[in-house]
Design a protein that fits this description.
Elements (H helix, E strand, L loop, with lengths): L4 H7 L11 E3 L6 E7 L1 E3 L6 E10 L2 E6 L4 E6 L3 E4 L1 E4 L2 E3 L11 E7 L5 E4 L2 E2 L6 E15 L2 E12 L8 E11 L2 E6 L1 E4 L6 E4 L7 E5 L5 E5 L5 E3 L8 E10 L6 E9 L2 H15 L10 E3 L3 E3 L7 E2 L3 E12 L41 E2 L9
Parallel strand pairs: 2-26, 3-27
Antiparallel strand pairs: 1-24, 2-4, 4-5, 4-9, 6-7, 6-10, 8-9, 10-11, 10-12, 11-25, 13-14, 14-22, 15-20, 15-21, 15-23, 16-19, 17-18, 20-28, 23-27
Keywords: Signal
InterPro entries: DUF4249
Protein name: DUF4249 domain-containing protein
Length: about 375
């Protein structure tokens, strides 16, 4: 739902959704306000949350306002109600003990503070099969860019598709790369004091840029940007072999760690995501506004003409980590690097406190914690 953040970000890209899964054309308007719901629950242990915001777009601008003070519930098997707790910024959190169970049904229901009520269609939890094998190949023409092709590792998986049921799949990935540069200052230098550590603009350095080494171990984290879904309608029970799940740029000659998640999704969720993937990925990137809106499964109970963005989804997740050694790339191409420019360090001076080391600040895209499965 791209933490399942990679998936959450993907769902929030589309600006308009409506009542059931089908596309319709967008018309030019001065400003469009859309209630947007990012909601995916799964069978993993750990904290799960959903996000509800009002999205505004128009005149080449886009901004969001969190929906606060809402009453949010997950309805299990049309009997049990699980209440979510508001955290702030439109985020509502499930109890830490909550996770979905195969065979159970789930609905999202919430009421805004003005009394307007919304409810999703019912989603049933299905089981997910295990990933049996992961492997990669190196390709010089791996990823097309406006300036040509960048080398990349193509990562593939094998899995067994159960013959006794219809299955729909979604694959996502998360990549860890070792990072040595933790700050880049343009038109100034990096200072540790006064806190917080930061770049400071300085007239004497207005025409230079400096990079600063991390103060310890640090990893950057990357997430998939493409939607990758599949249905076994025409291949039920046959092994899924050589499914391409990721194109990983050749950032560095040293190895990298990837975690691949294989998720079971409903037939309705598959149709929704396939339409979104076909529409957006065939007409640009996932950061582009799609040429047509896609109808989701969240509705205003009293006004079903209201456009509501998002698809409440229930998934079963199986994950596996794989070490990309990059041995198959050595001598074939130069790494593209983790930063988008040649590295220039601040020159040493008589002041032995300079240049300082920059902290590796924990975030959704960076961590000082060694990931499980990392190989030095």
């Amino acid at each position: 739902m791209l933490k399942n953040k990679s998936f959450i970000l993907l769902l929030s890209i589309c600006l308009m959704f409506y009542a059931c899964v089908e596309p319709f054309s967008l018309e030019k308007q001065q400003e469009i306000k859309i209630l947007t719901v990012d909601a995916t629950i799964n069978d993993l242990s750990g904290e799960q949350s959903i996000k509800i915001i009002d999205s505004y777009s128009g005149n080449d601008s886009f901004y969001e306002i969190p929906v606060t003070n809402a009453k949010v519930e997950i309805i299990v098997n049309n009997t049990e109600r699980v209440v979510l707790t508001e955290r702030g910024k439109g985020v509502y959190v499930l109890p830490i003990s909550f996770h979905t169970r195969v065979g159970d049904t789930y609905k999202l229901a919430f009421q805004k503070d003005d009394g307007t009520k919304y409810e999703s269609a019912e989603e049933r939890q299905t089981s997910a099969s295990e990933i049996t094998q992961i492997y990669d190949e190196f390709r010089l023409d791996g990823i097309e860019t406006p300036l040509g092709f960048n080398p990349a590792h193509y990562v593939y998986i094998d899995t067994n598709d159960p013959a006794d049921q219809k299955n729909n799949y979604m694959w996502t990935w998360k990549l860890w790369e070792r990072q040595n540069i933790c700050a880049t200052c343009i038109g100034g230098r990096f200072f540790l004091t006064p806190a917080p550590a930061r770049c400071k603009a300085e007239t004497a350095y207005s025409d230079v840029s400096y990079d600063y080494t991390c103060n310890g171990a640090c990893w950057d984290m990357f997430y998939n940007k493409d939607l990758n879904v599949f249905t076994d309608v025409f291949s039920n029970g046959k092994p899924i072999l050589g499914r391409l799940v990721g194109k990983i740029p050749y950032y560095a000659s040293s190895g990298a760690l990837i975690e691949i998640k294989q998720q079971s999704i409903s037939a309705e969720a598959y149709r929704y995501l396939k339409l979104l993937a076909d529409q957006v990925q065939n007409n640009g990137s996932l950061v582009d506004t799609p040429p047509a809106a896609i109808i989701g499964n969240v509705k205003n109970i009293s006004n079903q003409d209201e456009a509501v963005a998002g698809f409440f989804m229930v998934t079963s997740v199986r994950s596996k980590r794989y070490w990309i050694s990059r041995e198959n790339a050595k001598g074939l191409a130069a790494p593209i690097g983790l930063v988008d420019h040649p590295i220039v360090y601040e020159p040493s001076q008589s002041d032995t406190s300079r240049p300082p080391l920059a902290p590796c600040n924990e975030s959704n895209t960076r961590t000082p914690s060694r990931p499980e499965g990392w190989i030095n």
